[in-house]
Amino acid sequence: MSGSAHPTPAARHGGNPLLRAIGALSRVCGVLAALLIVAAVAITCQMIFIRWVLNGSTIWQTEGVTYIVIAATMLGLPYVQLLRGHVNVDLLPLMLPPAARKALAIVVQLLTLAVIGMMLFYGYEFWHEAWDWGETSNSPWNPRLWVPYLALPVGFGLYACQVAADLWALLAGYDTPFGLDPDVGLTDGREGH
């Protein structure tokens, strides 16, 4: 690896077709999340125009934008994981020798998968209950709630796939712990990034 602290996502698959496919799926999720944000902004602008310019009432826009932003957030999870965009404090990994750093990275990813697994389980139950009971919102629009709730199990499921792929890449040696160069650390007197 080069001296870069954060390798590009493409360099973390080692040519493995499954890891490449999961990375591609995460990129598609990133594009979809961005498009959903653009749609939410457009709907908000339309709602403002109807309310303030035409002096009309809106029925579905506020609730629709809320559901769209939630879906964008859930679908954006795997893409942000692919780019290592989640909050990361690397002081402890920089203080550890390479073997302990790798062990810590494995433990962190396993714990992350456990939390995502819980969220996936409860998100699925939440979605399934809305589907099974035919729940609708209590608004004039009254949409079926299983549609926006579907973002929870789908988003957490795709996020789990990306974290599992990252763990696999780490164990296979395609990636370094926390994306740090093995020669970078605080224990030998050299500073990290």
Brief rundown of the structure:
The chain has helices spanning 17-53, 61-82, 91-95, 98-133, 146-149, 151-172. With 193 residues, it is mainly alpha-helical.
Span between N and C termini? Answer: 15 Å
Percentage of residues in strands: under 5%
Q: Roughly what percent helix?
A: 55-70%
Give the averaged pLDDT, no decimals: 88
What does it look like?
By secondary structure, the protein is an all-alpha fold. Helices cover 65% and strands 0% of the residues. The protein contains 6 helices and no strands. The protein has helices spanning 17-53, 61-82, 91-95, 98-133, 146-149, 151-172. The longest helix is centred in the N-terminal third of the chain and has 37 residues, at 17-53. The model is unreliable at 1-7 and 189-193 (pLDDT under 50).
Task: Provide keyphrases for this structure.
disordered N terminus, 193 residues, single chain, 6 helices, mainly alpha
Task: Please describe the topology of this protein.
Elements: H1 17-53, H2 61-82, H3 91-95, H4 98-133, H5 146-149, H6 151-172
